[in-house]
C-alpha cells in the first residue's frame, strides 16, 4: 500500500484537486488533515515578492514546528525576503513570513507582526474606483505607481519630493492617458528615494 499524509499545506480546491492514478490499483490512500488550507491564501506581493501574505491571509501562523529534529536543525533562519522565519514561536505557511515592511531596509522591531503597513488599498477588489493610502517617515522622493500583471507601469499616482507624512489618493482604474484598464490583477507600489518600500496586490473586477 502507498499512503500519503497531507498536513499544513496549501491545496487549491482541497480534496477535489487530489487524484489517485490508475496505476495504484486501489492500493493508494491519503490522509487530508484539517491543518490544510484550501481557500484563497490572500497573497498580495508585487514583482519582487509575489507570494507575500496580506494582513488577512489564513496562512499567518498556520505552519507547524512539530517536525523531526533534523529538519528543525537545518531550517533557514529567514524566509526568501530575509525576515525571521520563526516569530513568537510560530511560523507562517508559505515561503514568506507575514511582515508589512518586507523587502525594506528599515530595522526590524522586536515584534514585526505588529508593524503598521505603509501602503493600503481599499476597497480591494474594486470595480470602478479605489483609494490608495500611503505613509513615509522622512523627507524623501516618493513615488506611488501601478503595475499590471506583466510588471509594466500603467499609472503614476504620485511622484516628487515630499515632507514626512501620508496621503490618500483615489484611483479610478485608468492609465496615465486616461484609458480605462481592463479587469485583472494589478500591483500598487510605494517607492521612497527609488527603493521599493511596499507593494499591494489589487484586483479590478
List keywords for this structure.
single chain; Immunoglobulin-like; 3-stranded antiparallel sheet
Quick check: average pLDDT? Answer: 80
Terminal CA distance reads 47 Å
**Order of H and E elements:** EEHEEEEEEE
Q: What percent strand?
A: 25-35%
CATH class of the domain at 119-204, named Mainly Beta
Give me the CATH fold name of the domain at 119-204: Immunoglobulin-like
Tally of individual helices: 1
Beta strand count: 9
Report helical residue fraction: under 10%
Radius of gyration: 20 Å
Corresponding CATH architecture of the domain at 119-204:
Sandwich
- Overall structural class, as computed from helix and strand content, comes to mainly beta
Order of strands in the sheet with most strands: 6-5-8-9
**Mind describing the biggest β-sheet?**
4 strands, antiparallel
The residue ranges in which pLDDT falls below 50 over 5 or more consecutive positions are 101-115
Identify the overall geometry: globular
How would you describe this protein?
It is a single chain. The chain is mainly beta and 205 residues long. Among the domains are: 2-32, no CATH class; 119-204, Immunoglobulin-like (Sandwich). 2% of the residues lie in helices and 32% in strands. It contains 1 helix and 9 strands, in the order ββαβββββββ. The strands form 3 sheets. A 4-stranded antiparallel sheet has the order 6-5-8-9, with no helix packed on it. The longest helix is centred in the middle third of the chain and has 5 residues, at 69-73. The radius of gyration is 20 Å and the shape is globular.
